Amino acid sequence: MNEQQWSVDVRLDEHMADGSEMSVSARARLVGLDGVTLEGAGRARLFARHSTAVTISKKVAVARALADLSHRLLRSAADEEAVARRANRAAQEIGSPAQPDIG
């Protein structure tokens, strides 16, 4: 079995959005993917400063960052698959004998 481990690093930042409204932003970064780093972002508003509201807002921001990262990872895999299929198709066309022109 060939086991691999990929790590996701999540960073949170609380800040003032427009001078009066607090928000929390999150960045989720996938490292160790063949040298490629993918990053997703998420944000949530802080409607209250008590600890329960802050914790909920942080969870929402992280969930949004992970969802964004997931979409980017799927898009990257789909792009790579399309390139591999085109290369495979081209290799098959080059390696196969020419088709007679029936017309």
UniProtKB/TrEMBL annotation:
Record-given protein name: DUF1876 domain-containing protein
Pfam families tied to this protein: Rv2632c-like (PF08962)
Gene3D superfamilies documented for this protein: Rv1738 (3.30.160.240)
Domain of life: Bacteria
Stored InterPro entries: Rv2632c-like, Rv2632c-like_sf
